[in-house]
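Bumping with the actual sequence this time:
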Amino acid sequence: MKKLLLVATSIFALSGIVQADIHAPPGSQYTSSRKLGRAISNILYGFVEIPEQIVRKTDGYGRKGGSTWGAVEGTNKAFKRLGYGFYELFTFTCPTYRGTFKPPYEKCGQDNRIDMNVHDGLSEFPPELGFETYYGHSRSQTY
């Protein structure tokens, strides 16, 4: 009886070890709570696209281009963020994009910055005003 109990215990112990998987599936970081956070941030902070696009267009095309085309482009992107935000707010419990909770815009990365959807230029979360950290290095000196 003791041998049978020992064999059964060792089988259960080994089966638990054998079934363990240390790798997370590809979409495991995208959850319904992240989708809800993305929706709320797009609704609350999507208007930040307006000054962001004004600055980007000013850098690339001058002050007149920034104040006109940048303002129009920023307003367009702000409304798109608002639309995506409400869409994701109402569907945050459902995996709507290809059966996952990923954002509904495609990745198109250049350098270390993640830009989504080539035509819209939307990233997953709204842009930050001021100092933006897109790179993993700093100007600190190492010895």
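The tokens above came from a reply further down the thread. Confidence is low (pLDDT under 50) at residues 108-115.
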